[in-house]
Specification:
Layout lengths: L7 H28 L22 E3 L2 E3 L4 H24 L3 H23 L4 H5 L3 H25 L8
Antiparallel strand pairs: 1-2
Length: 164
């Protein structure tokens, strides 16, 4: 069953901006949280982005972690994930063929990845409680799903993209 054509323009009006908002929420939160590091400056080159969402303060495997606004980063990842999922599901309904299933699946995968990233940030607890695998699944899934989602969504806007 296909979507009602009358709702397609409405979906197009909010789904694209929602995807842009998902990225902006993440980038703005990252900048704010990085600027708030209080023991030493956060390094975009040397530190892992996931440290921004870590409650842990102290030295971890040669890294000094201190993110007093960790909860802002975690909330941003969850919000970004929700935006990715909602927009991807809405966009998928406008498409046909393999893209109709692929785009929502990738958006949901990205949402799950970001939630895992928020709930299981890298730090000593991941090794102590055996949840390192959940952090790694979130990290790798986010890289893969996020990039493939961008490519497939971009291809879906090409001439004939909504038909195949």
């Amino acid at each position: 069953m296909s979507a009602d054509p009358r709702t397609q323009p409405a979906v197009a009006r909010w789904a694209g901006p929602a995807l842009v908002a998902a990225v902006l929420v993440d980038l703005i939160a990252e900048a704010v949280v990085a600027a708030a590091w209080d023991v030493r400056p956060y390094s975009y080159v040397d530190d892992y982005v996931n440290f921004l969402g870590s409650r842990f303060t102290g030295e971890f495997r040669g890294f000094l972690i201190s993110s007093p606004l960790w909860w802002v980063m975690s909330a941003a990842w969850i919000a970004s994930g929700a935006l990715f999922a909602a927009a991807s599901i809405a966009l998928g309904r406008r498409l046909s063929g393999w893209r109709r299933r692929t785009i929502p699946a990738l958006g949901i995968a990205q949402a799950v990845a970001l939630i895992l990233f928020a709930v299981f940030p890298l730090g000593p607890a991941r090794f102590d409680d055996g949840t390192l695998v959940l952090y790694l699944v979130g990290a790798f899934l986010s890289i893969i799903a996020g990039n493939v989602l961008a490519v497939v969504t971009g291809l879906s806007g090409s001439p004939g993209g909504s038909r195949s």
